[in-house]
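Appendix B, record 7
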Amino acid sequence: MLAKILPLILLIVGTGAGIGAGIMMGPEPAPEHEMASTGEEHMATPTETMDDGHGAAESMEGGEHDYVKIPNQFIVPVVEHDELTSLVVITLSLETKPGMADKIRTFEPKLRDVFLQVLFDHANMGGFKGAFTRSDVMHPLRTALREAAQRQLGHDVYDVLIMDMTRQDV
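Structure tokens (predicted):
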């Protein structure tokens, strides 16, 4: 019994240590007042019209969007037949109206919880099996993440962007 569990424990500990080392060795984040001037969190908007998902098209012309990265990655276990088969690691950012960064930081624990629930549901429906990056597989995930963010923060969140996604088979 221990021989079957030990590799799984070592995998989880090793993955956690690798992620921790990556975070610790990564570049220091710029102070918030420098971010606005460097453009890391703030970008000019496209001049197109965007539908907020409820039939009301909102003109983006003349406005701007902020892009706020959710700190720390999301780790989603993929379980088949009661056995862990792979881990999916995802990095997310939010596209919002300007000035939402502080509100997002305040609501981060709740956002992480609802995002994880969406990701777990997607994994349980088989969304991370096979060719999981196909657009017809990713579209429902993107929609569910956006709707979850909008339930927590309102329609000032325009989209949830999947910045990185990897799957490690066990």
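Remarks on this record: Confidence is low (pLDDT under 50) at residues 33-62. The CA atoms of residues 18 and 81 lie 27 Å apart.
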